[in-house]
């Protein structure tokens, strides 16, 4: 493939604009070879270079007293004390999952796990945030089935518990589902491994599985919109093997203990190209690769294919030469490939040799550092008017309204999903998914645990990107707080449409500003993340979806709270005031059939004060039952508490009933305390300036809100549990609803 003519069509097919190609010509002073064009395409696409988003990502708070490593490495690293740290990140695999749901989702899980163990951490938890089109769209059921099977098939086989996540449906995802995968691992704080190459003339070693043609051009495909050529893109989806990855994990962790690893990098997007260039450029070194030495599983692979393959379960390492035999023995033992494929150099060039010829010779720093960076034009999003409760009708029957909401696609139980995941493997999970956050014991530590949550409300982000971005952070922080954990840090996965459209870029800018404001106010820095743009099909973009994944620390795991601990006789308390806001709410959409109005405003000072108060009660052992309020407001939160605990309740609401029950005002929690503790909690809240009131009491077998709802708890549970299995078993969306 070395003699292919570089035409404008060929340049365009590599995702490069004419001015970007001119930049390449100016940089290297000649026409590139086809392999070099592929390398530039891989390094300069949106997925790898962040060329549309870098300017705004730099505004996010990324530092804090516990942050060991912020953005820029394979994953973020946060200190949890006692010489330990948590390593975590979230990444998208949206485009591959729409084209080939099982493998797209599976390799998304595989890739994020590698990002974590490349840093020297053993993965201990996974989450996934999934968004699909309308339930009645002909492709939705197929995508849900494939993606969930892929997530479970890879994570279960690899042996990491899936502890939480999200699943949502909306017509705007009809042509572009979202699969955001999160992983976290534990490492020793003094044994973290980085990707910066050091030393001249050192061996560059290929580790893991063999290279094939799967995934060639995957990163470029992930940086483009979909159209009717989508089926032709199937070969750009990688194929995963979780059992090989499990061997790779064990081999890497064993290798890291030998002192052989100077630098190590996962081969993810853009494969061998991106990993080699990043390692060399970070270390101010050149890299020379000998492709004839790369282990391959297909015949007659070209240099172009080898450099752009995204075959899974592969790593690249700079090796301490004296340890080569010891390192190789470890990989042979685990049945994996170990091949010296190059060396570090002092000339700042990226040279690729194949079959006795030089097929690429490029300036290594400029490949990364000189990638285009755009300050794309953007327009301020339109501010939607606030809809008052008086402008929205009350339901004719509050009981029927609650049953409809609790059994709607976005609120119904996700049991059908999480029961396909191994949530208990490794033996450290402290609760099953379905509550506010996942909780995992810190293995080997006598008292500590880690909490995890993933959150965003895309309809809020569509209505007001700044408030929506802030709310995603606040809800993640709130869910972690509701377990009793101290929120430490976050990772973001920013999913948006085409950034070349000023209105889409405006959504992105304002969402990032909202995220930054909330992270600053809540001392919740962003330490890693991913941007996924061009999530459009035939020009129709997804809802703006800036997913936030967060991690929190529990110092004493005997002092935590959960949503299924409520007991008869407990007093229910509402922290944070009664509901007033129905704009952009689930109630408005499901009962009134309207998606309109401004979302609930986020008061970050109130968010922090209320959360700190609730966390203090949990840590004191006073509160063992807690649930934050979000989609569906108070009525849904109370119903979820009752169903999870299998205990009825009786509550009283004040103000406009539909707003009090279904308003989605922020910074709120429901807590349950023993009757003899209630007065002390109320007094403590008053002293702290936190709004609180008695809601009612748990007990019996009915769900009662005085003057509005009186239902058997069993009827609520059936409505809640039925939608997903009915939908996936082939009932029509209308029947399932």
List the helices and strands and how they pair.
Layout: H1 8-13, H2 18-28, H3 34-44, H4 46-49, H5 54-57, E1 67-69, E2 76-81, E3 84-92, H6 94-99, H7 101-117, E4 122-132, H8 140-158, E5 162-169, E6 178-188, E7 203-208, H9 218-221, H10 242-256, E8 261-266, H11 271-282, E9 286-290, H12 303-308, E10 314-319, H13 324-333, E11 337-345, E12 349-354, E13 357-363, H14 364-369, H15 398-406, H16 415-418, E14 438-441, E15 449-455, H17 458-463, H18 465-481, E16 486-495, H19 502-521, E17 526-532, E18 536-537, E19 540-541, E20 545-554, E21 571-575, H20 586-592, H21 604-619, E22 625-628, H22 633-645, E23 649-651, H23 657-662, E24 669-673, H24 678-688, E25 692-698, E26 702-705, E27 709-712, H25 713-728, H26 733-736
Parallel strand pairs: 4-5, 9-12, 16-17, 23-26
Antiparallel strand pairs: 1-2, 2-3, 3-6, 4-6, 7-10, 7-11, 8-10, 9-11, 12-13, 14-15, 15-20, 16-20, 18-19, 21-24, 21-25, 22-24, 23-25, 26-27
Helix pairs in contact: 7-8, 7-10, 8-10, 10-13, 15-25, 18-19, 18-21
